[in-house]
Amino acid sequence: MRFLQSAAVCVLAGQGASAAVTADLSNPAGIKAAAKQVAKDLMSYYTGNNPGDVAGNLPAPYYWWEAGAMFGTMVNYWYYTGDTTYNEITTAAILHQTGLEWDFMPTNQTKTLGNDDQGFWGLTAMTAAEVNFPELKKPAPGWLALAQGVFNTQAERWDLQNCGGGLRWQIFPFNNGYSYKNTISNGCFFNIGARLALYTGNTTYASWAEKTWDWVQNEGLIDEKWNVFDGTNIGDNCTAKDHNQWTYNAGIYLLGAATMYNQTNGTAQAKWEERVNGLLNQTVNTFFVDGVMKELCEGGQCNVDQRSFKAYLSRWLAATTRLAPFTAATITPLIAKSSAAALKTCTAGGGNTQCGLKWTTGSNDGSFGVGEQMAVLEITQSNLVAQTPDWVSAVKGTGNSTGNVDAGSNSATADSIINKPITTKDRVGAAFFTALVLIGVVGGSATMMISE
Ligand SMILES: *[C@@H]1O[C@H](CO)[C@@H](O)[C@H](O)[C@H]1NC(C)=O
Ligand SMILES: *[C@@H]1O[C@H](CO)[C@@H](O)[C@H](O)[C@H]1NC(C)=O
Ligand SMILES: *[C@@H]1O[C@H](CO)[C@@H](O)[C@H](O)[C@H]1NC(C)=O
Ligand SMILES: *[C@@H]1O[C@H](CO)[C@@H](O)[C@H](O)[C@H]1NC(C)=O
Ligand SMILES: *[C@@H]1O[C@H](CO)[C@@H](O)[C@H](O)[C@H]1NC(C)=O
Ligand SMILES: *[C@@H]1O[C@H](CO)[C@@H](O)[C@H](O)[C@H]1NC(C)=O
Ligand SMILES: *[C@@H]1O[C@H](CO)[C@@H](O)[C@H](O)[C@H]1NC(C)=O
User: Hey, which family's this protein in (predicted)?
Assistant: First the structure.
């Protein structure tokens, strides 16, 4: 692999100027050193391993899903760098949030639990299986079974009653956004389905992935130019679309398509290759400025959730280079250039190493937090993708995480919650939310959860 020329932004402490993260990306040791500092600053936000705190939760203002996403980044951190420093914390965090039915539906999170929120934890378990992250100790299930648990519960929620299919954003009727069908929830389901098919060879998962893609595309949530939009509301039979675009929506369909490409041949493979090419092309057109990744909201205000989205596009672009090797020539320089720019923002906070949001500016923009930190970590460690072993699922016969095809399908916990009477407060909240969507106030920015 070719590495970017050295992009050192290190200023020695004691020179009076601000310190920064040493960013010599010209060799693996330099990349790992930069990732190590960024990872350390990321984990400094995590309080779940403190006495009396709850493992797997981040403090406010971070929602539950973002912790699931963050531990996915930490699984990847180990995979790319071999640094085991955070493995124990990561394992304990994921284990604590698996829920009573081993499907990432912990009862404490009922009010924040949408299909996308559950999906991000499921993606973390899927990654752990793919990269051979050490399995949970019995009686806990294998990573594969946890991902299957998420998949199975979501397959049961496929909604033929409205708009001809698709998953709703929310799982529970009393949560705001139950009438919205969003692209990221369906993207999580599509992506996990494609990856379970690759891992297990079970074509049922691949059929679901096909079906989900088809629904999303038929609804116009992926258009003929390969733009990927935010979602649509069942109130008008999914006629109007929310046309906001986010990096993570493009990324989750890109990697899912690459995963399907990898396991097909003939005309089916040609179809997925065209989708990979189209999505990648439009991703570059939409989200990169001179090779540096940018979230569109950076032109205005990005909320706490949105500040983390570049982490997922980074993560999924890197994985795409391995499953669809013809994309590497396009993606590798984007990762190199974006990471060099991203690390230049890591000059804030007490240690002058906290990263900012706007990579295109070449300096810290005054914004920092878990999302900013996670995004810079993913893009930085992604420079190591060409020299990291393949996902075990991509090399036939090497995946050995313990699975359970029936995982999560008997979710008594979920049923008892669904059947809980809806309170007046819940109804008022839902009606208010629907009104906001209808007048276009919330729609696109209604990523993840809004309630509470
Ligand atoms: C649920 O909340 C209780 C009370 O804060 C806590 O003790 C428990 O660990 C939480 N469980 C999960 C899975 O977060
Ligand atoms: C609603 O949309 C679905 C597809 O999105 C279509 O199959 C169905 O005919 C539509 N129903 C009505 C009443 O327009
Ligand atoms: C194509 O895939 C099918 C089913 O997955 C398989 O039976 C067949 O051997 C493959 N053909 C080639 C040329 O790889
Ligand atoms: C890539 O995007 C450009 C600019 O929109 C467009 O002209 C071209 O047809 C696209 N190529 C593919 C393969 O989609
Ligand atoms: C599928 O992924 C593996 C692992 O990266 C790769 O070696 C193989 O070439 C890919 N298959 C195709 C058809 O590109
Ligand atoms: C799976 O295989 C890897 C080596 O490829 C090994 O390190 C790991 O312990 C195995 N896991 C299980 C659950 O057998
Ligand atoms: C394939 O997955 C489906 C869906 O979970 C399951 O019902 C079926 O038993 C699986 N088949 C095999 C051979 O494991």
Answer: Belongs to the glycosyl hydrolase 76 family.
Q: Is 354 helix (H, G, I), strand (E, B) or coil?
A: strand
First-last CA distance in the chain: 47
Instruction: Yes or no: say if 382 and 47 are a contact pair by the CB < 8 Å rule.
Output: no
Using one digit for the tens of pLDDT, what is the confidence trace for 34-68?
999 999 999 999 999 999 999 999 999 999 999 99
CA–centroid distance, residue 323 to ligand 5 (Å): 5
φ, ψ (nearest 5 deg) of residue 177: 100, 10
Q: Are 405 and 148 in contact (CB under 8 A)?
A: yes
Express each pLDDT in 409-452 by its tens digit. 665 444 444 444 444 343 333 333 333 333 333 333 334 433 32
- In sequence order, what are the residues at sequence separation of 6 or more whose Cβ sits closer than 8 angstroms to the Cβ of residue 434? 179, 233, 235
Which uninterrupted H or E stretch holds 292?
A: strand 292-293
Under 8 Å between Cβ of 341 and 359: yes
Structure-derived torsion over alpha carbons of residues 339, 40, 127, 280, reported in degrees to the nearest 10: -10
The residues that bridge with 222 in the sheet, in sequence order, are 228
Is the CB of 135 inside a 6 Å radius of any atom of ligand 6?
yes
Provide φ and ψ at 181, rounded to 5°.
-105, 110
Residues contacting ligand 4 via CB (< 6 Å): 277-278, 281, 285
Q: What is the predicted pLDDT for the residue at 295?
A: 98
Residue having the nearest C-alpha atom to atom 2 of ligand 2: 163
Distances (CA, A) of 83 to 20, 311, 352, 386: 21, 19, 23, 18
